[in-house]
Amino acid sequence: MRSKLVFLILAMFILPLTVPTVNDSPLFLNNASAADACEGDIEPVSWNQSLQRIAMVPHFNPYDSWWNYFDEGPGDGKNRDGKSNSEEIVIDMALSPEPEWMYYYPWEQEELVLDPFISNNHATLLIGNDSVGALKLNLSANHRTTICITLQDFDQINGSNVNADVYLLTSSEYTKYEESYYSSHSNNRWYSDTEESLSDIPPEWRSFNFLGWKSFRDAHQYENVDKVNFALSLDGPEVYSGLFGNQDWQDFYIVIDTWDNVHDNDAQPPETITAADVTIITTERTLILPNFTVSLVFLVLIIGFAIFPFILNARYMKAGLQTEEKSMGIVPSLNTAAELPPPVEQSASEAFENFKSNENG
Q: What is the pTM of this model?
């Protein structure tokens, strides 16, 4: 009984790993090579339908009036850094190749509803120094998505490769990230300074950081790299439910970061234009286990661990209570008399007489 239970539990864990996928190979082999699966039939990009380009640049800050609100009031007209509030930051526009529509757009365009991303696309983003380039997309839960990014120096000043930071953010985290960027590029850096002071918070307390931002699943952040390949599969549509029943749909942002953000180990501004080649490959998933299977497996394990001591105790209590059958034999005991076999001669003579009587009959 116990061996069957152990086999059943092992089968529940191993079966999802051995189910063939679209490529007719085991799932765990696909996982091992998914980061290298950056080839496929590339289709033309449907901009603003399944993919959207967004940028943040140091010479445009839509929050200027909001951040500068805290500078108003009595004083000498200087902020905490000792600089004048009206002092403009000098920006080298030659290192800002982003077109104006990527960063200066109506706010309603940010709420653009995108189709589920189920195609294979390739795009090249030019990201200026101290800037951010992002691709917004609506990931499909029915597809496995592989993202491959290669960074190069567009002007070939610092060699062929250049290091930057790559993040995968949801809509809510991108909003925090956006506020962090614009705060650090404003005259008043109180928000950014407070956020940076919390950057060393331990990972186990990171979710309680109400000012900071984090990548999707707190794992998809790749800092100070020149290329990165990663894959992900969603358990279901990324929808956050509020306390009052309202639902907040989450899109995804592939962020390429060339500014010195609040993280401690991020890359510094490269002082050049970064060309990012982004390839996105989607693969339809043939087997999608529902979310409750994880809870079901752990529920079975917990029930098994809870019942096992009672089964063991019941078998222990029954041990030695079974009635033993009386052995029938010639071994004498105090309760039964000895049973002696007949003499050999007598038995032989009886057998001979029986033989003769059978012949006469």
A: 0.68
